[in-house]
Write a structure and sequence with these properties.
Blueprint lengths: L1 E6 L2 E5 L12 H14 L6 E6 L7 H14 L2 H4 L1 E6 L6 H7 L5 H8 L10 H5 L3 E3 L5 H13 L7
Parallel strand pairs: 3-4, 4-5
Antiparallel strand pairs: 1-2
């Protein structure tokens, strides 16, 4: 849990939920600790799913972790999600694939989690999940886009 930025009178915290599907099978402990923190934090603006564009598949472990969050927060979880595609640097094959829609992380997520079947999500909810490419050379623009989303689309907490 990292306090990383002041926005007005509030501090923005980043909570890294790494640890799902670890080799020591501590998912339940991890989830309980994370939920305890999230319940006491005053609300959540956004969930950021980071996927490496070199391997955009939504793995079984990622699906299981996302389902746990869906169980905790319902469809609002997806309504407060941002997808970040890493390793998308200028002149990289990943950025070229991103820009040509060969890599579509939103479509991967919708398909992998069968979000079209989720009656609590409208088509605009599914299509409205922001996707942002980020790399070493464009991280400042990507972070600014995330910051802008936090001030606008994700200003209300769940």
């Amino acid at each position: 849990i990292i306090p990383c930025k002041k926005i007005g009178r509030r501090t923005l915290y980043t909570v890294d939920s790494g640890g799902f599907a670890d080799t020591e099978d501590r998912d339940e402990d991890h989830t309980n600790m994370l939920c305890k923190f999230l319940r006491g934090c005053g609300g959540i603006n956004a969930f950021v799913l980071t996927k490496n564009c070199a391997d955009p598949r939504i793995t079984k472990e990622t699906k299981e972790a996302l389902k746990i969050y869906e169980d905790c927060f319902g469809a609002d979880f997806y309504k407060h999600m941002i997808i970040v595609g890493s390793h998308a640097d200028a002149d990289s094959t990943e950025l070229d694939a991103w820009e040509s829609d060969e890599i579509d992380l939103r479509a991967e997520l919708v398909q992998a989690l069968q979000l079209k079947r989720n009656k609590e999500l409208s088509k605009s909810d599914r299509e409205g999940i922001p996707t942002i490419p980020i790399g070493v050379e464009n991280f400042e623009e990507a972070v600014e886009e995330i910051h802008s989303l936090l001030k606008t689309k994700f200003s209300n907490k769940i």
